[in-house]
Write a structure and sequence with these properties.
three-stranded antiparallel β-sheet, mainly alpha, Arc Repressor Mutant, subunit A
Length: 143
Amino acid sequence: MQLHNDELFDILVGKISMAINRAFLRAFATEGIDITTEQWSVLACLWKKDKVTQQTLCNLTSKDKPSMTRLIDKLERRNLVTRVSDHNDRRINLIHLTDSGMALQKKATDLVQKIAAKTLNNITEDELILSKGVLKRIMSNLE
């Protein structure tokens, strides 16, 4: 059976995503960082701006509310985040980094940057700009 170009693209994007995920998980495990890549994406958002709503995290990570609730629950059980009531609206919980969650920032961020550099090795700036533009347009088409 002959694959069409769009099917080849689907397979390639999926393989790249899985390979990057495996690289992150291996590196995290090697460094004793006991988090998943999904948990890292939530922590990375909180490292940029702490005490945000669950909905904000959903928007930033493109995750639905049930998935985000499970991620926050797991991070909370690991004492990396906590839920804090909003002073203005007690119905709203803000997700807040714990000291342990903040302590992971440098180690995890350095590791992610190292993997990103390896991932982009031998790719020119022009190729990267073009690729980002195409991928952003694809994401826009899917939204």
